[in-house]
Amino acid sequence: MKQERLLIDMSVTEKSAAALFALGRLPEVKVEGISLCFGRTSLESSHRSLSGLLKLFNWDVEVALGADRPLSRDYLIDPSDEDIAQAINGLQIETDELCYLSEDDGPDMLYRRLKEGQGETKLLCFGCLTNVALLLDRHPDAKDLIKELIWCGGAQRHAELGIVLDHATYMDPEAAWAVLRSGVNIAMCPVDLGLKSYMSRAEVDSRMHEKEPLLHQYNRLMKKIWCDENAELPVGERNRMLPLPELAAVMRATEPGSCQSELRYGEVDLKGRLTFGMLVIDIDNVLQHSSDEMNILQITDVDRQRMVHRLYMD
Q: Do 45 and 8 form a contact (C-beta atoms < 8 A)?
């Protein structure tokens, strides 16, 4: 069986960790390297958390440290230094023993692996695009070596969200601006794709009696995320769906036929007062961009049942 070659660039959060659990269920995927970047969590926290996850998964994969801060500004939001295993009701993994690190930093490790893949490697990014921007700046030919950049970030309609939840753009808007202008082949799984890419409480609980250690930890993680999503609701009314655009990104990377998409044009606003740091997408092509000018393949829907069963329940 030919395996799909995959590189991952990430800040390790509970939801991006869920994506790693999902990828671990797919024998047709070969993760060839993981570069770490600051984001919702610090670079040091991500290193500790990933070390524990790799030990749990028994993965032998190259890991490299990348950017620990934005390209050209101070932090807009301070990263958390908490590990994903610190919650009493979440993952039970050891994060004290750190995994071995590549001699290359994140962007250079990605470039080396992309060259080895000769244009057949996909890059799956969870979080800020800082490492990707540095990769494309140092090695302009990397653009043609990336089969597809699948980015779990951006948002389609900020007004519908009420507040800015697109941290992947906001925490380093200059990096996102540079990557979107680079011409790289990018598929975007926006934050609000979680309205269609989600799990119900019953689906999360379907693994609650799992005895196999890895699946048991997967369920503990998903239940913790679901509880956090519903914590503000009164007892008896906690039935909010768990949005998981991260799993939609995994589906796009490994089974693209399960996703629907639209070519669109988008730019990151670096000057506006109300939309600074946001990815603004011309959904209806009001500005009449030609097909050649469209710089984003936006994932608009996913076969949710297929996603839930393939990546969690089956």
A: no
> Model confidence over 67-95: pLDDT tens digits?
999 999 998 889 999 999 887 788 999 99
Tell which residue, 16, 21, 22, 56, has the closest CA to residue 36. 16
Helix ranges, the chain (H): 14-23, 43-57, 106-117, 130-138, 158-161, 167-170, 173-180, 201-205, 213-230, 245-254, 304-308
Pick the closest to residue 151 from 27, 285, 37 (CA basis): 37
pLDDT digits (tens, 9 = 90+) for 186-207: 999 999 899 999 999 999 999 9
- The alpha carbon torsion through 99, 102, 103, 109 (nearest 10 deg) reads -160
Please list the residues that pair with 187 across neighbouring strands. Answer: 150, 297
- In the chain, what are the domains? 4-313 (3.90.245.10)
Between CA 34 and CA 191 the distance in angstroms is: 22
**What is the rounded radius of gyration, in angstroms, for the C-alpha atoms of the chain?**
18
Residue 210 burial (C-beta neighbours within 10 Å; 0-12, 13-18, 19+)? middle
pTM reported for the whole predicted model = 0.95
